Amino acid sequence: MSAIIDTFIAPPCFDEITFLFQDAHLLVINKPGGLLSLSGKNPQNLDSVHHRLVSLFPGCTLVHRLDFGTSGLMVVARNKAINAALCQQFSQRSVSKTYQALLCGHLSDDEGVIDAAIAKDPALFPRMTICAIRGKPARSRYRVTERGYYQGSEGDALPVTRVELTPETGRTHQLRIHCQQRGHPILGCDLYGGLLMPGAQQAERLMLHASGLTFVHPVSGEVMQLSAASPF
Predict the structure, then answer these.
(1) Which domain of life is it from (predicted)?
(2) CA-to-CA separations, 115 to 84, 106, 162, 186, 217, in angstroms, rounded
(3) Which residues, 6+ apart, have CB-to-CB distance to 192 below 8 Å?
(4) Most buried among 87, 183, 194, 216, using CB within 10 Å?
(5) Confidence of residue 3 (pLDDT cuts 50, 70, 90)
């Protein structure tokens, strides 16, 4: 099999990371859309959440990632022991995450569950694919909060549905590919059909934002509930 080559070069991101919580053990940040979580192998992809934070907090490590185009909440460990404790919470699915998204078109139902296994698709890197045979189980819940129209940069009004998404598993690109599977891709999603609706090219970003995060502080035992309002 031929080697996978990543040719993506991230455009400059001038938006700042904002801090919602910090102590001696961990940070909770609000990542801007258009910023890599980790620096890429290509030196042109040096700028990232980790690159920016490690200069301020030496030894910090990411517990989880958000896609380049996704904005919102991330928890960052300030040492290896805290990273291990938080990673255990993620692997045990005791961390609760919610997202806000704008989906292309108007959904007919108000809520539902998408249950579709996800696998890597080496032939179409970096895309994932729905595959019941090779895929890992993946489950997402959605709840409609509003149906309306997105005003594009050229004045076109695009029909969209605002939803709250709750992933019950944490697969790569899970929400993006599950929304495509449901027939309503996330507006602005270049990998899974979010630019195909007439006028969708006017979307200035991927309309996906990590808006809520709940976990247990590994040292204090406090239940941490954090939120960040959607920027779109």
Answers:
(1) Bacteria
(2) 29, 20, 20, 17, 30
(3) 127, 173, 176, 177, 179, 180, 185, 186
(4) 194
(5) very low
CA distance 176 to 104: 12
Structure tokens at 205: 């970003």
167 three-class SS = strand
3 state DSSP class of 52: helix
pTM attached to this predicted model:
0.94
Buried b (16+ CB within 10 A) or exposed e, 107-143: beeeeeebebbbbbeeeeeeebbbeeeebeebbbbbe
Tokens of 8: 């993506």
67 carries an active-site annotation: yes
Please report the pLDDT score of residue 1 as a whole number.
Answer: 40
Mean pLDDT of all residues in 61-76: 97
Kindly name the residue from 6, 15, 47, 67 that is annotated as catalytic.
67
Joined tokens for residue 60: 């910090």
Q: Are 93 and 171 in contact (CB under 8 A)?
A: no
